[in-house]
Amino acid sequence: MQRNKPFETNPYINMNNNTNMQVPNQDLGLQNVNPYINQQNAVESANTPSSSLLGSFDTQKFLIGALVGAAGVYLMTNEKAQKTVFKTFAKGTAMFSAGIEEMKERFEDAQAELEAEHNA
Fold first, then answer.
1. Partners of 22 in beta bridges
2. In angstroms, rounded to a whole number, what is the distance separating the alpha carbons of residues 46 and 50?
3. Strand, helix or coil at 41?
4. Within 10 Å of residue 11's Cβ, how many Cβ atoms?
5. What is the mean pLDDT of residues 13-36?
6. DSSP conformation letters of 81-106
7. Under 8 Å CB-to-CB from 11, ≥6 apart: which residues?
8. Measured between alpha carbons, how far is residue 26 from residues 56, 78, 115, 119 in Å?
9. Distance of CA 77 to the CA centre of its chain
10. CB-hemisphere CA count at 13 Å for 42?
11. Plot region of 29 (φ>0 → left; ψ -120 to 50 → alpha; else → beta)
């Protein structure tokens, strides 16, 4: 009586199962072929060791983050810079409010013109 080996009875590893069959690969030995996974990318990533300890380090993003962080630290620690920023913000808010008031006046003028044309 011949006993079945465990890997021959497992439907996910069985070589007769077409949805997930094993194929030899020179670099990886036996590899499961899954039709839902891009095999080319899987083989390339398995064969490519990471080039450095940092992985994919992006110098440009690092420099932008360092500059934003430095500006934040400067604003949080320099009282004169804080006053300048708050004054600028207050002036901008005042100008925005004046602009809103001007828009309201123009809207009311346009509304009055439409009523005058309608009554004429």
1. 32
2. 10
3. helix
4. 9
5. 53
6. HHHHHHHHHHHHHHHHHHHHHHHHHH
7. 17
8. 27, 62, 85, 90
9. 31
10. 11
11. left
